[in-house]
């Protein structure tokens, strides 16, 4: 393993949820500890099973691991850190200020930025306080701060007054206002991150084109702010011998090899390790110890092909079609296949003779392009998130930022790079199309988070209040928020994968939407290996794991759900999308 | 010198970038605050979502919030007394409070109607 050679003091593993960061971080910690180094493992994974792996309770304090000499671990729960932060701010004024004021404050502090900055605050001490870390030769984190957070911390303007005096301009660093540490500490933390002698960043990816593109973006963003010492690990790659087992395994193998061959140039120059998909679950010390060694798939571990009886996407479409018109929004983390599912739903509706407008923000335009004009009743449009965000950003800088000084302008520019900005820009573009949903079906492959909706609704709430004060009962106000809250008008479908972290992330999205008074109408589990009934032992093992997650979605999270199988071919074009919607429990063995 | 205290509504950023629309008045006002500081004024800004305790501890501000709600913010106090409510002051108003002359009148046309859709 290249990333394990001459490791520096700090090792960060980064990548999107479900790629295996935590497993790799654990295995790395075990490996280095076995070499006699003293290691501290820090996990911020909300689905952290680090404690389970080592068979002890860990929690938010450094805990020695008895089963692994030289190893200690610490779990940071970013949600809990954010909650503690909210309590610090809101607690003292509860009962003193009006209730609606207190609720408003809590919402302001419920965004993703607050969570991220609160988590960063938690591990700042580990980066700078030598008394805490002197005992350890290596500190391994299963996460890394985003470029946006680090850049904010680097901007001198961000610190003007607010953090040093507790007053003045705040910007997106607002959430930091309640944090107790001094600027010098954050600066030291950022310096430690950017120092290649002390810090190594390991990008973790899967052999999928979309994932690799995303990792390439992360790489460039973090390299630009000084985290240049990066390594790449591609996890869970299907071994060649499995491809001989069945057609699905062959198709997956081919697709992965194509993705690896077409790896983005900026990643191709990084030291890279490839980890094969393992025939066992990465739970327990023995499993983790063998993560870095290639083990042949053990045929003896054979389990019966799992039987999955789950509703297909077409059964969900029955319920959508019944209302004759309306807005369908797909929601989920990047890479779970929202665009594909949106397209499959649109094609299925149009195929039934219903008028549909499919609108996507898919950066790879081929899907929408191949559909346009291909089916009566179906119109397709595309919104380019990057272009929308750029336009919004430029407009704001030109008009509102015109009179700012250099420092103020730098801060405004960074604020405009926050993830919220893209969400708002894209949503504004979509809302022009949403109005059509009164007459026909509008299917969108994206949706704003509940947090954004609540912030956007501030205007709606204001207008309603005015109407109430005027006593004008005849006047009727429909805000976008009210439309989204009415299940007759809007159906939100949560898309996820049948894996632990993606399901957990989807459940968080659902909680966030519920806070905004929106009950997701259904869940769609995409790319299910179990639904495809594989023969290959490796894929069957994966299918068995999926069943646990599918069961959790069916019984705990979703009101109604559908499972969409992993297909041999990319679901492009009308035929394959119709096939996708109608497969599922009726899938033939492939 | 005078002390100006600004009690902002709950904003996640003082520029309002995270809101529906960036509020021109906020961006302009940030620049005016800088100017007022250069004139020697003490200017303090409090964001309802970040320092709610300051709102709760000041009787004038708390009473205002109870009567008129958070929609009626911002509230501006000059040496502890209400100077303006419901909108941000422009540079001329700041100058008047501070007793200084505005050399160049590049101040905004004023008030909440600076070209946005709100009025």
TrEMBL record, chain A:
<dbReference type="InterPro" id="IPR027541">
    <property type="entry name" value="Ars_ATPase"/>
</dbReference>
<dbReference type="GO" id="GO:0016887">
    <property type="term" value="F:ATP hydrolysis activity"/>
</dbReference>
<dbReference type="InterPro" id="IPR025723">
    <property type="entry name" value="ArsA/GET3_ATPase-like"/>
</dbReference>
<comment type="similarity">
    <text>Belongs to the arsA ATPase family.</text>
</comment>
<dbReference type="GO" id="GO:0005524">
    <property type="term" value="F:ATP binding"/>
</dbReference>
<dbReference type="Pfam" id="PF02374">
    <property type="entry name" value="ArsA_ATPase"/>
</dbReference>
<dbReference type="InterPro" id="IPR016300">
    <property type="entry name" value="ATPase_ArsA/GET3"/>
</dbReference>
<protein>
    <recommendedName>
        <fullName>Arsenical pump-driving ATPase</fullName>
        <ecNumber>7.3.2.7</ecNumber>
    </recommendedName>
</protein>
<keyword id="KW-0067">ATP-binding</keyword>
<dbReference type="InterPro" id="IPR003593">
    <property type="entry name" value="AAA+_ATPase"/>
</dbReference>
<dbReference type="InterPro" id="IPR027417">
    <property type="entry name" value="P-loop_NTPase"/>
</dbReference>
<feature type="domain" description="AAA+ ATPase">
    <location>
        <begin position="7"/>
        <end position="226"/>
    </location>
</feature>
<keyword id="KW-0059">Arsenical resistance</keyword>
<feature type="domain" description="AAA+ ATPase">
    <location>
        <begin position="324"/>
        <end position="517"/>
    </location>
</feature>
<keyword id="KW-1278">Translocase</keyword>
<keyword id="KW-0547">Nucleotide-binding</keyword>
<comment type="function">
    <text>Anion-transporting ATPase.</text>
</comment>
<dbReference type="GO" id="GO:0015446">
    <property type="term" value="F:ATPase-coupled arsenite transmembrane transporter activity"/>
</dbReference>
Automatic annotation (TrEMBL), chain B:
<dbReference type="InterPro" id="IPR010712">
    <property type="entry name" value="Arsenical-R_ArsD"/>
</dbReference>
<dbReference type="GO" id="GO:0003677">
    <property type="term" value="F:DNA binding"/>
</dbReference>
<dbReference type="GO" id="GO:0045892">
    <property type="term" value="P:negative regulation of DNA-templated transcription"/>
</dbReference>
<dbReference type="Pfam" id="PF06953">
    <property type="entry name" value="ArsD"/>
</dbReference>
<dbReference type="GO" id="GO:0046685">
    <property type="term" value="P:response to arsenic-containing substance"/>
</dbReference>
<protein>
    <submittedName>
        <fullName>Arsenite efflux transporter metallochaperone ArsD</fullName>
    </submittedName>
</protein>
């Amino acid at each position: 393993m290249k990333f394990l050679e001459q490791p520096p003091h700090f090792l960060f593993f980064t990548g999107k949820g479900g790629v295996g960061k935590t497993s790799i971080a654990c295995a790395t910690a075990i490996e280095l500890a076995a070499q006699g180094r003293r290691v501290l493992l820090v996990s911020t994974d909300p689905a952290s099973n680090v404690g389970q792996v080592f068979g002890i309770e860990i929690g938010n304090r450094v805990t020695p691991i008895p089963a692994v000499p030289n190893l200690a671990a610490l779990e940071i729960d970013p949600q809990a850190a954010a909650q503690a932060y909210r309590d610090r701010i809101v607690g003292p004024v509860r009962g003193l200020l009006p209730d609606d004021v207190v609720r408003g404050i809590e919402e302001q502090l419920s965004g993703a930025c607050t969570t991220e900055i609160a988590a960063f605050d938690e591990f700042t001490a580990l980066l700078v306080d030598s008394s805490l870390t002197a005992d350890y030769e290596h500190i391994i984190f299963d996460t890394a701060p985003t470029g946006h957070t680090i850049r904010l911390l680097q901007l001198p303007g961000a610190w003007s007054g607010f953090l040093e005096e507790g007053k003045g301009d705040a910007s997106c660093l607002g959430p930091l206002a309640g944090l107790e540490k001094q600027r010098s500490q954050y600066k030291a933390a950022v310096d430690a991150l950017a120092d290649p002698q002390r810090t190594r960043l390991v990008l973790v990816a899967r052999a999928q084109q979309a994932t690799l593109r995303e990792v390439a973006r992360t790489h460039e963003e973090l390299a630009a702010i000084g985290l240049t010492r990066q390594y790449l690990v591609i996890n869970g790659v299907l071994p060649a011998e499995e491809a001989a087992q069945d057609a699905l395994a062959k198709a997956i193998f081919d697709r992965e090899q194509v993705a690896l061959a077409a790896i983005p140039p900026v990643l191709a120059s990084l030291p890279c390790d490839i980890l094969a998909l393992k025939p066992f679950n990465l739970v327990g010390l023995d499993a983790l110890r063998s993560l870095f060694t290639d083990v042949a798939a053990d045929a003896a571990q054979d389990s019966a092909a799992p039987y999955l009886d789950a509703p297909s996407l077409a059964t969900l479409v029955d319920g959508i079609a019944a209302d004759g018109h309306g807005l369908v929004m797909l929601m989920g983390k990047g890479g779970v296949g929202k665009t594909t599912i949106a397209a499959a739903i649109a094609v299925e509706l149009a195929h039934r003779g219903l008028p549909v407008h499919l609108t996507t923000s898919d950066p790879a335009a081929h899907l929408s392009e191949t559909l346009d004009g291909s089916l009566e009743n179906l119109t397709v449009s595309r919104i380019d998130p990057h272009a929308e965000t750029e336009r919004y950003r430029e407009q704001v800088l030109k008009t509102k930022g015109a009179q700012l000084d250099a420092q103020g302008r730098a801060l405004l520019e960074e604020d405009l790079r926050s993830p919220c900005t893209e969400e708002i820009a894209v949503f504004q573009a979509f809302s022009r199309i949403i109005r059509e949903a009164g007459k026909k079906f509008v299917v969108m492959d994206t949706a704003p988070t509940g947090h954004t909706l609540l912030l956007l609704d501030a205007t709606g709430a204001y207008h309603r209040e005015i109407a109430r004060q005027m006593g004008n009962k005849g006047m009727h106000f429909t805000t976008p928020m009210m439309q989204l809250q009415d299940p007759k008008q809007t159906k939100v479908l949560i898309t996820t994968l049948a894996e632990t972290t993606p399901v957990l992330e989807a459940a968080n999205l659902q909680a966030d939407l519920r806070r905004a008074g929106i009950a997701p109408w259904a869940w769609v589990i995409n790319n299910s290996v179990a639904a495809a009934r594989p023969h290959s032992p490796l894929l069957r093992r994966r299918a068995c794991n999926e069943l646990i997650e599918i069961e959790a979605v069916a019984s705990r999270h979703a009101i109604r759900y559908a499972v969409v199988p992993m297909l041999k071919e990319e679901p492009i074009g009308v035929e394959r999308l119709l096939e996708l919607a109608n497969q599922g429990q009726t899938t033939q063995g492939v | 010198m005078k002390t100006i205290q600004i009690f902002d509504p709950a904003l996640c950023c003082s520029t309002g970038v995270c809101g529906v629309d960036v509020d021109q008045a906020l961006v302009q006002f940030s620049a005016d605050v800088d100017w007022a500081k250069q004139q020697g004024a003490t200017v303090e800004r409090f964001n309802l979502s970040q320092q709610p305790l300051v709102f709760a501890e000041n009787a004038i501000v708390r009473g205002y919030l109870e009567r008129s709600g958070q929609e009626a913010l911002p509230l501006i106090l000059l040496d502890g007394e209400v100077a303006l409510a419901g909108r941000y002051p422009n540079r001329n108003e700041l100058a008047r409070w501070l007793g200084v002359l505005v050399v160049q009148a590049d101040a905004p046309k004023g008030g909440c109607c600076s070209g946005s859709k709100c009025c």
